[in-house]
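Re: that backbone. Tokens:
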């Protein structure tokens, strides 16, 4: 079984389109159309990460940065 992966994501809310970009330092830049209100942007980032990594959104946990632009997520490996 693979171990969980921790990734760092910088979030840009209210972007023109949803897009996830890998950065040279191993982090990600997530541009989401959702505003940073009531967790909408966080949920949009989780959907982007789930699609990118091919896992269910429920397998992604926000570890830190709930209200900030820099966030850390734990990605659980896909269930067998």
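Recovered sequence:
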């Amino acid at each position: 079984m693979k171990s969980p992966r921790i990734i760092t994501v910088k979030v840009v809310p209210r972007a023109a389109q949803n897009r996830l970009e890998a950065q040279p330092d191993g982090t990600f830049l997530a541009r989401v159309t959702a505003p940073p209100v009531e967790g909408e942007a966080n949920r949009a980032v989780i959907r982007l990460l789930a699609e990118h990594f091919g896992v269910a959104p429920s397998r992604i946990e926000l570890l830190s940065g709930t209200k900030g632009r820099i966030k850390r997520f734990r990605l659980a490996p896909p269930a067998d």
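The first helix runs from residue 40 to 53. The chain has one domain: 5-75.
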